[in-house]
Predict the 3D structure of the following.
Amino acid sequence: MTAQLESTVISSVVAGKPVDGHSVVRSTNPARLSEVVGEVAFGDADTFVAAAEAAKTAQRDWAKIPAPIRGRAIAHIGRLVEDNKEALARLVTAEIGKPYAEALGEVQEIVDTCDFFLGEGRRLYGQTVPSEMPDKQLFTHRVPVGAVAVITAGNFPVAVPSWYIVPALLAGNTIVWKPADYSPVVSAAFHEIFVRGGGLPDGVFNLVFSDGEQTFAGLQRSLEQGLIDKIGFTGSSAVGREVGALAGRHLQNACLELGGKNPLVITPNADLDLAVEGALFSGFGTAGQRCTSLGTVIVHESVHDEFLARLTKAVAAAKIGDPADDVLMGPMLDQKFADRYEEYLDWIQPHHTVAGPTGRITADNARDGFLGDATAGLFYHPVVVDGVQADDQLFLEETFGPIIGVITYTDLDQAIELANKPGYGLSSAIYTTDPQEAFRFRNGVGAGMVSINNSTSGAEAHLPFGGNGKSGNGSRQSGVWVLDQFTRWQSVNWDYSGRLQKAQMDTVELTPDRDFRLGS
């Protein structure tokens, strides 16, 4: 099959059947706003609750399927994604404006995730634990959580959902997935591939299109009715707080992957060319619209001028334009992100220094060497702001878009303090040739992920992904660590002595000779 949709209007899918929506919204290409990628029928809170009911009903039978067989389903999904890699990547590029090379890498993340977890179906290990009582054995088992609500952003419309959905399905859970409202076409294709590739029974993987207000209302009702057993959320820190609070009221711990203000430290002995390359990709890949995008470069005062000169030159020469071409960055994902980005530009203060133009790329505010028609889409100039101070809003808050700040430091302790000051804790990086500096930074920074001589962005399927502070609640995705989000430990004690043995009361103790003395 190819990643194409069979109808012109995309709708939610509950228990294997399309569900009528209450309003139809067009999804357009942010690189060519006149181009309609598809139309989506938005559901409401009732749609979400119906999907949760379907997931809850299907979960028990899905969990009965042996885990190795569920692992084989994941393997089949991975192969079907691989067969449709280029088609799915083209949809990602068309719908959110991600450069095609990046889109291919994103789809590859699904393949990598499936390849990793197909084997975990044979490794959902428990333990055999010795008992302190005779004729008694203790065991631990992983059991599925139940029905899982997954709510994801659209900057990684297929990779990030796979981080939740693949391990959750493998572990025996069922899914209600609410993707971003601005990436419905690629989300529908992703869902179709998963359902067909895995041969998933109806109700195991449900798809809901709705706006944020209706989603929250449906999630709240589903929790109140006991239909949702776990929430996975990727999005802003502000919305994550609300989702986490809602989960907490129902004695649940949501898996939260939120925003970041990711620091990149440059030491006096750093390879500056490599640091510039890393800062360029970290700050402006996906037009700075990643949770792991570079927020602030923290550069030692002794190399500040040289680094800034090289970075400014690299930014000016970077290829920007049509994401179907070979470019560093394309457009903003959606009009709402473009509007918000313009607010961030207002945070630039008189004590800041900016080289080059800012704002939307137009005929009157042109960029040299732009590839394509800038006036057709949501294209913005990449911006480097020097002279940032530690109490600036631009330093303290996440800026979702192609803008990075530059601040100087005098010693590594100060650099680490600056790296931690905004209170986010997702990703971080340091460029150094001194191993001692690398270890000191790793030990002092509060981020969940640390890169040494690499960008702040990037993930691998077998490594834990997640943040702390305003970037998340310490939950982790990817690798074996994510299984702790989608399984619960169950302990079993099996007494075959034929009599009641009471732990800590009937335990046999050896009697030591407390009067023993050496040489006596």
Remarks:
- Residues 1-7 have pLDDT under 50 and may be disordered.
- The domain at 10-258+474-490 is CATH 3.40.605.10 (Aldehyde Dehydrogenase; Chain A, domain 1).
- The chain has two domains: 10-258+474-490, 262-462.
